[in-house]
Write a structure and sequence with these properties.
Elements: H1 9-33, E1 38-40, E2 43-45, E3 54-55, H2 57-61, E4 71-74, E5 79-83, E6 88-92, E7 101-109, E8 114-120, E9 126-132, E10 135-138, E11 141-144, E12 150-156, E13 162-170, E14 175-181, E15 187-193, E16 196-199, E17 202-205, E18 211-217, E19 223-229, E20 236-242, E21 248-255, E22 258-261, E23 264-267, E24 273-280, E25 287-291, E26 298-304, E27 308-315, E28 319-320, E29 325-326, E30 334-341, E31 346-353, E32 358-365, E33 371-377, E34 380-383, E35 386-389, E36 395-401, E37 407-415, E38 420-426, E39 432-438, E40 441-444, E41 447-450, E42 456-462, E43 468-476, E44 481-487, E45 493-499, E46 502-505, E47 508-511, E48 517-524
Parallel strand pairs: 3-4
Antiparallel strand pairs: 1-2, 4-5, 5-6, 7-10, 7-48, 8-9, 9-12, 10-11, 12-13, 13-16, 14-15, 15-18, 16-17, 18-19, 20-21, 21-24, 22-23, 24-25, 26-27, 27-30, 28-29, 30-31, 31-34, 32-33, 33-36, 34-35, 36-37, 37-40, 38-39, 39-42, 40-41, 42-43, 43-46, 44-45, 45-48, 46-47
Length: 525
């Protein structure tokens, strides 16, 4: 016979307080509802006087002049909310009440469909970019590929209702890897295409095997312009961001051989080099900076603050930028982060290195000139003198540098499986949100998460000083991966990625229509 013991007295007291609060709410509710009613399988008649309103989360926020103690059923996040005097707090949910509420929806078809980038605008609209195969359905709108894989860009309002979806591509494989949105609601995407690809009414012809593209759509989903860059070889756009005033577009990725960006031609040092390029919001006035080694190198993500440009990715040989470089520690790949000023002049480059693999996948700059990077490492990796050793196959990391490139702290995220950090964003207070995938049981800043199956989604919040605020998981028995994260001006957090089978996000279960589908998740503290 096994007797379960309490973990601690504080845990017992906290649980008792929650139970008492729920009992008090139910007693107050029953008192309010006391009247003669008829209970049938079809429901209760009449509806009790003073019954709690059943509303979407946004409709709850719009309730006029709420008073402390008001309650409402939240249909968006499937929970009960209680007005505390300054916010609508979540009371009853299957998850810990201190975690943010989460819901999600799925898009796709019988083929394999992936979400790679997410962004928001000033009106709370959500933009998701990625790739799809065959026929994919977004809400009630279906799009069909021209070839093997095509590009999609979808826009939703804050309530998650589809506003429009656009496709682009040709007879070969094409994909969008990232999206950024300006203050006017124009959306910019980057990725790769092969041969000839159609964007709106424009046919884009590549220079070689695979080219970079950048496309701009207005708030109604009408193509404004599309540009390509590249060489006779293989080139791809990985990350995109915009200047604070929206006048500049910045892209990173990789190129081979001799590549052309606007009127500028650059030559790779090896099999593939990093590019950091930009143009105006009208697709003109191109510039480009490069970094490379004799081996394969890739830029994955890019970010800006008021005055500077930052990029991260990986390199496999001794990496050379225009005015600086980094050595490789003999492993498969090392992580880099590089900074340029507003005049596109090299400032510094830093690395995370070890004998196996280190890669940077996500980056965000703070309002105070700091920069945060996430990615993955295997074996033992060194970040500016601090060694991290993996718990399993690979772990995620989160590292902070100040404006001079001095590392402030680094965190190890993960456990016994394969764990990767993919996306980063920050809020107005410079709290950072990191997302990615994990297997088995992982430690995220002191918070333990266990996956439901093969690979699950994780998202965690850290303060600018590196203190974890919470960590949460989502997923099912299959492979579920979060690729990107964004936050809007009302502090709603959005994730996108892909999943298979059925996956659980809070109290919401989504099911794929085919092999792999896109998910879009919304979170709110």
């Amino acid at each position: 016979m096994k007797i379960n013991t309490l973990k601690s007295l504080p845990d017992y007291i906290a649980g008792l307080k929650r139970l008492c609060l729920m009992v008090a709410i139910l007693m107050a509710t029953f008192t309010t509802y006391a009247q003669n009613v008829t209970i049938l399988p079809s429901g209760i008649t009449p509806l009790p006087a003073g019954a709690l309103p059943r509303l979407s989360y946004d409709a709850i926020l719009a309730l006029p002049s709420p008073t402390t103690g008001d309650m409402a059923v939240d249909l968006t996040f499937k929970c009960l909310r209680f007005y505390t005097g300054d916010r609508w707090a979540r009371l009853i949910n299957d998850d810990d009440i201190n975690l943010p509420a989460i819901t999600a929806w799925a898009e796709g078809g019988t083929g394999n469909d992936y979400g790679y980038g997410v962004a928001t605008d000033n009106n709370g609209n959500i933009y998701v970019a990625g790739r799809f195969t065959g026929t994919a359905t977004f809400e009630s709108t279906s799009i069909v590929t021209t070839g093997g894989e095509d590009i999609f860009l979808a826009k939703y309002n804050r309530a998650g209702a589809l506003q429009w979806v656009r496709k682009a591509g040709g007879s070969s494989d094409d994909r969008a890897n990232a999206v950024a949105v300006d203050a006017s609601g124009n959306a910019y995407i980057t990725g790769r295409f092969t041969g000839t690809a159609t964007f709106g009414a424009t046919n884009l012809v590549g220079a070689g095997q695979q080219d970079v593209f950048i496309a701009k759509y207005n708030t109604s989903g009408t193509l404004q312009w599309v540009k390509n860059a590249g060489s006779p070889g293989y080139d791809t756009g990985r990350g995109i961001c915009l200047s604070n005033n929206g006048s500049g577009v910045f892209v990173t990725g990789s190129f081979t051989n001799v590549a052309t960006f606007g009127d500028t031609t650059v030559t790779s040092q090896g099999n593939g080099d990093i590019f950091i390029a930009g143009c105006s919001s009208e697709g003109e006035n191109w510039w480009v900076q490069t970094g490379g080694s004799p081996m394969d190198d890739e830029g994955y993500a890019i970010a800006v603050d008021n005055l500077n440009i930052y990029a991260t990715g990986y390199y496999r040989g001794n990496l050379v930028f225009s005015e600086g470089g980094l050595t490789n520690n003999g492993g498969s790949s090392d992580m880099f982060v590089v900074k340029y000023n507003a005049d596109k002049v090299f400032q510094w480059a830093k690395k995370g290195s070890g004998p196996i693999t280190e890669e940077g996948h996500g980056i965000v700059a703070s309002s105070t000139g700091d920069v945060f990077v996430t990615g993955n490492f295997a074996g033992t990796a060194n970040f500016s003198g601090t060694d991290l050793t993996v718990y399993g196959a690979a772990d995620a990391f989160l590292v902070k540098y100040n404006t001079d490139g001095d590392m402030q702290w680094v965190k190890q995220l993960g456990g016994t499986g394969l764990d990767i950090g993919y996306g980063l964003t920050r809020d107005a207070n410079n709290n950072v949100y990191v997302t990615g995938s994990f297997e088995s049981t992982g430690n995220f800043g002191g918070v333990s998460l266990t996956s439901n199956g093969d690979t699950d989604v994780f998202v965690a919040k850290f303060t600018s000083d590196g203190a974890v605020q919470w960590a949460q998981k989502a997923g099912g028995a299959g492979a579920d991966v979060s690729q990107a994260v964004a936050i809007d001006n009302a502090a709603n957090l959005y994730l996108t990625g892909y999943f298979s089978g059925s996956a659980t996000f809070g109290n919401t279960i989504i099911t794929s229509a085919g092999g792999i589908d896109v998910f879009i998740a919304r979170m709110k503290e």
